[in-house]
Amino acid sequence: MLTDAAIELRSVAPSLLMRAIKWLIARRPPVFPHDEAGFHAAMADRPLPADAPMPASFYRDFLVGGWDAAGHPVVTIHPKSGPADWHMLYFHGGGFVQPMFKVHWPLVAAMVKSCGISVTVPLYPVVPEADHAEQDAVADAAWATLAEHHYPAKIILNGDSAGGHMALALALRLARKGGPMPGKLALFAPWLDLTLADPAIAAVEPHDLMLKIGTLRACGAMVAGGRDPASAEVSPLYTPPEELALLPPTRIWTGRHDLFIVDSRTFVGRLSAAGVDAKLYEYEAAPHVFMAITPTREAKDVFALLKDFLAA
């Protein structure tokens, strides 16, 4: 039973559609290999991965613009009626090593339509072909350009999985600099500790269809490069309270069949203790980044909560 006021269970059982899609996911080849050796084999001498192309229908359904940040492409999507009051800077997931997936585009479209917002999507370079400094440079440049053309307090940073890490890390860099801050922060199943140090995560692993501890630790070590993966610089879970206190209102959404649920609970507790307006929404038996399964009842609930968060 959850008793923390900062944590709310939104769904006590998975919807029928969620059950069906989980059944299909379990029978398909995994996005990430399920062991460390397989991960290293997949990364070795691979062809340069390419971002999934944006669907042609976006040009019909939205106003679409393209630009670049630190030499990498960025896409901005507005509602058909024009630029919205709130503008989201969204970072896609993929363990820092995978490009934009095909399923990320419908997720972006659903947020534009459901929340009536504009969304900017940086197509950042991936590890190991690039390194964390290049990824951070793209994030920083995208923010700087967006903040020049849109009131910063009406910008929300968002991302899923590793993209949630990127959104949070960007907010922390901005806070340390003392400049303009985004108005809000939304994190979808964020990867908060690249070492997955909490032993409680092992109990969730058998239920997670996509993520495995050994694979993620190997991936985290690759992403960290020469840095300490357990440092606050690399794993935002360990950010000091005085820095957490500088963050804007924050909402997190995570499924209970997701390895990252454990660290999400810890992090929202630390945010609340630091005085941040923070809340975690949980969904029973939902898999990693379940909100990308946009037709489900659970995903629609996420979009409704996100809309309410922006309206508050």
From TrEMBL:
Pfam families membership: Abhydrolase_3 (PF07859)
InterPro entries: AB_hydrolase_3, AB_hydrolase_fold, GDXG_lipolytic_enzyme
Domain called Alpha/beta hydrolase fold-3: residue spans: 88-291
Keyword vocabulary terms for this entry: Hydrolase
GO molecular function: hydrolase activity
The protein, known as: Alpha/beta hydrolase fold-3 domain protein
Source organism: Erythrobacter dokdonensis DSW-74
